[in-house]
Amino acid sequence: MTSLPKMIVDCDPGHDDAIALVVAAHFADLVGVTTVAGNAPITATTRNARIVLDMIGSSVPLHQGAQRPLVAPPRHAAYVHGESGLDGADLPEPSRPADSQNAVDFIVETCRATEGIWLVPTGPLTNIALALRAAPDLADRIAGISLMGGGSFGNRSAAAEFNIWADPEAASIVFDYGKRLIMSGLDVTHRLQATPERIAKVRALPGRLAAVLADLFDFFSQVYVSRHDNMRGGAVHDPCAVLALTHPQLFTCKDHHVVVETHGELTMGMTLIDQRGLVERETPNCTVQWDVDAEAAFNVIVAAIAAFSK
Ligand code: RIB
Ligand code: CA
What per-residue string of b and e applies to 254-285 under the rule 16 or more CB within 10 Å gives b? Predict the structure, then answer.
């Protein structure tokens, strides 16, 4: 019996972040949750994380983090997630406050106390970059970083995906950190869509959690289908960063050199993935997830929701 991967999820809930928390809470050893500004301001993302943890009855440590990027101005994504960051469902009031407003301290102290923890960021990489800078020994103590972000194309611009675009300087620090790095970018996450048939599986589950998550999926998917050509549902981005560790067999991946553009007038926030098939290619620093067994992956998501819906 292999042990569950230990992880800290650093998130900006966010509809897909919420699902990532549910999957991590069931299929991983969720050591803690930290929040970052991204989809919404830090007060909103932290409130949303509190609500999600309440709904699954989790008392894991929750620590609030950065309220703004390292250099870039704060920019959010209300056009996708709504002003609250988690629009589209009748959510309960949160029952507990965050344990602190020092996510970076929590990450550093926890990873120093216990070796082999994965950092799983599903929002802008501000907290992760600050932790790596605050504790140079962190890189050798963690199991690695499995992030949602980047891709061979963008969604915030033609070149840049939101999590990277929101804090390119932080992302550059993370991609340059030199140890185990898994990237679930848009190339793989757009292949995991919350189609109506898949959302129906969630809605068929008993209890309030499933009903709320089905409503969130409906809201998120309606936004995606209305804004994209040829999508049948919301791209379930963030759970891919968790599933990469809990269910790696569902993914197709390849190692590449990936670097973040932090100066490009047109390409700021781009993840430049070296796919060249020639000797000059750069030494790989990142495992890039390119494809996923979407039906199986969504069934894993349904199973996680069901586990908290009894
Ligand atoms: O581009 C998708 C990413 O941006 C996801 O993490 C989503 O939650 C938003 O943060
Ligand atoms: Ca996110």
Answer: eebbbbbbbeeeebbbbbbbbeeeeeeeeeeb
Boundaries of every domain in the chain: 6-308
Predicted TM-score (pTM) above 0.70:
yes
Give dist(CA 243, CA 27) in Å, integer. Answer: 9
Active site residues: 237
Ligand 1 pocket test target in 80, 148, 157, 192 with most atoms within 8 Å of CB = 148
Cα(71)–Cα(6) distance, integer angstroms: 31
- Encode pLDDT of 80-104 as tens digits: 999 999 999 999 999 999 999 999 9
Q: Quick one: 124 exposed, middle or buried, by C-beta within 10 A (0-12, 13-18, 19+)?
A: buried
Q: From CA 143, how far away is CA 3, in angstroms rounded?
A: 14
Does the domain at 6-308 match CATH 3.40.120.10? Answer given as no
Count of alpha carbons within 13 angstroms of residue 171, beta-carbon side: 32
Q: Determine the atom of ligand 1 nearest the C-alpha atom of 163.
A: 4
> Which segments of the chain are extended strands (E)?
6-11, 29-35, 62-64, 118-121, 144-148, 181-184, 193-194, 234-235, 251-260, 271-274, 286-292
